[in-house]
Amino acid sequence: MNVEARVAGKLPRHVAIIMDGNGRWAHERALPRSAGHRQGVEALRRTVRAAVEIGIEYLTIYSFSAENWSRPPSEVNFLLSLLRRFIRRDVADIHAAGVRIRVIGEREGVDPDIAQMIAECERLTAANTAMTLVVAFNYGSRQELVRATSRIADKLAAGEIAPTDIDADMIGHNLDLAELPDPDLLIRTGGEQRLSNFLLWQCAYTEFVFVREYWPDFNKEMLQRAVTAYCSRDRRFGGIDAQAL
User: Fold this and answer.
1) What is the pLDDT of residues 141-189, one digit of tens each?
2) Is 48 domain-assigned?
3) Which of the chain's ends, N or C, has fewer CB atoms near its CB within 10 Å?
C-alpha cells in the first residue's frame, strides 16, 4: 500500500493521533484506569513501528494535554511515571529505528527530571531521518497560539516588525511545529469526534478519521485502514477541480 500510495502522491506525510479511550477501555473490563494507560503505551509502541513500516514521515501524538493537570493527582502522577518509564525503556529502540523525537508544549513548570529527559531524547535522536515522532506533552493549541502571539507582540514592541508584516505565515512560523508540514490526516480513537484543543491552527485542512475502538486496541491494521480512507479522498483545499467544471 505505501509504495503505490507514495508513487501516486497520496500517502499522508504527517499523521496526527488523539489517543483516546484508555479509561473507558479499562472500565469496560472492570480494571483500574491505570491498566488502560499501560495498554495505551503498548498501543503507542505498535503504532510507532507501524508508521515507520507504512512510510509515514511525521507522526504527532497527543500524549498529555494542558487540561490533563485537572485530573486526580494520583492519575496525573501515574501518567507522568509512565512517561518516565517510556523514555527509559523505549527511546533507545526508537533511536535504533532511526526515529527523531520532537516534543512540543509548555515546558515551564514541568518537573525538572522530565524536562531533562525530554531534552536528552531530542538531542540523542536529532540526526535521525526514518521518521519524526512528535510528542505533544503539556500541550494545548490555544495556549500555543497565545505563546506565538506573545512572541510576535515582543517583536512588534521592539520595532523588529511592523503591524503590516503580521500575516498567517508569520503566525505559523511562531508555532511549535513551524518546521513541519501541517497534518494531512488526524485520527481520533474512542468514538469521540472533536479536536480537544489539539493543533487547531495546523488542522485547518486536515482530513479526519474517527475510530470507534479505544486507543489500547489500536494496531497497524487500524492505522492502515485510516491511511487507506485518507488516500481515497480528494483534497481540494477550498479550490475546485478544473476537470469537474
Assistant:
1) 999 999 999 999 999 999 999 999 999 999 999 999 999 999 999 999 9
2) yes
3) C
Q: Do residues 121 and 158 touch, judged by C-beta distance below 8 A?
A: no
Check if 111 is active-site.
no
Average pLDDT of the chain is 92
- CATH code (residue 43): 3.40.1180.10
Domain count, the chain: 1
Helix (H, G, I), strand (E, B) or coil at 175: coil
Catalytic residue among 20, 176, 182, 184: 20
Residue 108 gets the label, from left (phi > 0), alpha (psi -120 to 50) or beta, of beta
Indicate whether 128 belongs to any domain.
yes
pTM exceeds 0.70? yes
Instruction: Measure CA 187 to chain center.
Output: 10
Q: Stretch 29-56: mean pLDDT, rounded?
A: 96
Choosing from 2, 68, 128, 197, the catalytic residue is 68
- Residues 126-137: pLDDT tens digits? 999 999 999 999
Q: Give exposure, 198-228, as e/b (b: 16+ Cβ within 10 Å).
A: bbebbbeebbbbbbeebbbbbeeebbeebbe
Q: 3 pLDDT band (50/70/90 cuts)?
A: very low
Per-residue cell: 14:
504527517
20 is catalytic: yes
Does 242 fall in a domain?
no
Helix, strand, coil percentages in the chain from 3-state DSSP, rounded to 5: 50, 15, 35
